[in-house]
Backbone:
């Protein structure tokens, strides 16, 4: 990729909305699919799903950004995972659309930052059709509406074994459900950012969109941005 979303071919993509899936199962599924994509036994894949209440800490972890102790986590039914993506701590839970693009990035002209900007652009373009003016904050990865984050992004670039390049994993978490900020994000300092808040699609619009509806709606924007066609 030489610039965000620019490819010289139409890539084949497998995509499915899985629904609710425990975090550990989704993490194992990504690892399994990455191996299959690397050996060309499987097409590149976009997994769309939800998780039960979960906190994940990335490689830039700061334990002090988790505001709950073990007893409080058990009481609230929130799982905690230390994982291999970039970034700090974030929340996943019901009412949030999680997307895991498992894409091969060729070593020729590789621009890893462009990949992150492409993921952000998918969400920015999808929101714009509803009159939501979303954008970026230069110092932070993710998608913002004013001073509130609506989508977090954290990825890993897995070195391909058969070809020269990388296969992406992890991805984006887009808040859909109204009230999700107080449900899960109140127990952490999201991504270590204290000065800004968190919002959701339904909070902004007053609508009652479901996560599955959001998954179906965002797919054409992903296909366009990454020049994909669905198998």
Residues:
């Amino acid at each position: 990729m030489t610039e965000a979303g620019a490819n010289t071919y139409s890539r084949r993509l497998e995509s499915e909305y899985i629904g609710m899936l425990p975090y550990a199962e989704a993490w194992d599924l990504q690892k399994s699919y990455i191996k299959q994509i690397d050996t060309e036994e499987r097409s590149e894949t976009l997994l769309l799903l939800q998780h039960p209440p979960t906190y994940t800490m990335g490689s830039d972890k700061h334990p002090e950004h988790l505001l709950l102790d073990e007893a409080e986590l058990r009481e609230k039914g929130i799982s905690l995972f230390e994982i291999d993506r970039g970034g700090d701590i974030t929340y996943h839970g019901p009412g949030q659309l999680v997307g895991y693009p498992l894409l091969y990035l060729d070593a020729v002209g590789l621009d890893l930052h462009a990949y992150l900007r492409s993921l952000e652009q998918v969400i920015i373009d999808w929101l714009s059709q509803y009159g939501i003016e979303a954008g970026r904050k230069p110092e932070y990865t993710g998608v913002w509406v004013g001073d509130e984050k609506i989508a977090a992004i954290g990825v890993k670039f897995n070195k391909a074994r058969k070809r020269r390049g990388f296969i992406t994993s992890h991805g984006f978490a887009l808040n859909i459900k109204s009230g999700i900020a107080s449900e899960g994000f109140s127990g952490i300092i999201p991504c270590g950012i204290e000065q800004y808040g968190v919002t959701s699609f339904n909070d902004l619009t007053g609508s009652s969109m479901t996560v599955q509806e959001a998954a179906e709606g965002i797919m054409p924007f992903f296909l366009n941005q990454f020049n994909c066609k669905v198998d």
About this structure: The chain has one domain: 11-230. The chain is about 30% helix and 35% strand. The longest helix spans residues 112-128. Residues 11-230 form a domain with the BirA Bifunctional Protein; domain 2 fold (CATH 3.30.930.10).
